[in-house]
Amino acid sequence: MSEHPILDGPGPLAGRTIAVTSHRRAEDLAEALERQGARTVRAATMRIVPVGEDPELVAETERLLAADPPVLLVSTGQGFTTWLDSLEPTLRERTEAWVHRSRIFCRGPKARGAVRGRGFPDAPTAPEETTASLVDVVLDAGIRDTAIGLQRHGYPDDRQLARLEEAGCTVHVVAPYRWRPGPDQDAVRDLIERTIAGEVDAITFTAGPAVEALWRTAREAGRFDALQEALRDGRCAALAVGHVTAQPLQDAGIPVLWPERERMGALVRLAVERLGRPAPEQET
């Protein structure tokens, strides 16, 4: 686990140790925290496999088209776009033809915008931008006893998939993002031990799969229960970039905070608000 001291004087987070679990843009987040005085540790719990290195996506697409489900659930705009753009032209044309004749439901406004931007019909959108809300919309629309295609985002919410299956639906998943363990698992194991020991004030998460990857490493190390207890009892705070990222933490019964504006800069401001020292009073 790479540890970095403060950069620009004490700052409101001086004396605080904050972990960064992301792989993408990890340096940006760590440096923003350091500018506020924090000591940061880098421990990327997972990484994204580039689409071009993932032949399984093509196989998933072929299986989806063979099943020819009449319903498509789009989880993320970027994922939907990445999926279509990654396919070779003939397979892309077949996939787009299937999308055109499908009944589409979107998890949020970005997914809806991506669907419309590709020339597909406008689609109903989940009001809360969560998988649970998306499934609510689908079931409220009377979708039952049919095959469904799902463009999955990073965190697979098995409880919501089970709701669809209980309604008689068969779900065919395509996952444009494939998640693999982070490049330095020793760093992740060290983070787990330091968190249990009370040496880390907060762990930041910018993607739901980063949480799942942390759980996986903790289970392998025999430290899963101890790690979760440290995150529950106040030894270490869990900070997420947004409500979707927070979901797997909430599912585990762990208190988690996220900013109203779901952006990295807002996450840093939340860390300052929750963990920072109060500003000194001005002399009058």
Automatic annotation (TrEMBL):
Give any single GO term for biological process: uroporphyrinogen III biosynthetic process
The family database entries (Pfam families) matched by this protein are listed as: HEM4
**CDD domains attached to this UniProt entry:** HemD (cd06578)
According to the entry, every stretch annotated as the Tetrapyrrole biosynthesis uroporphyrinogen III synthase domain falls at 28-268
One GO molecular function term of this record is: uroporphyrinogen-III synthase activity
Q: What is this protein called?
A: Putative transcriptional regulator
Q: Which organism is it from?
A: Brachybacterium nesterenkovii
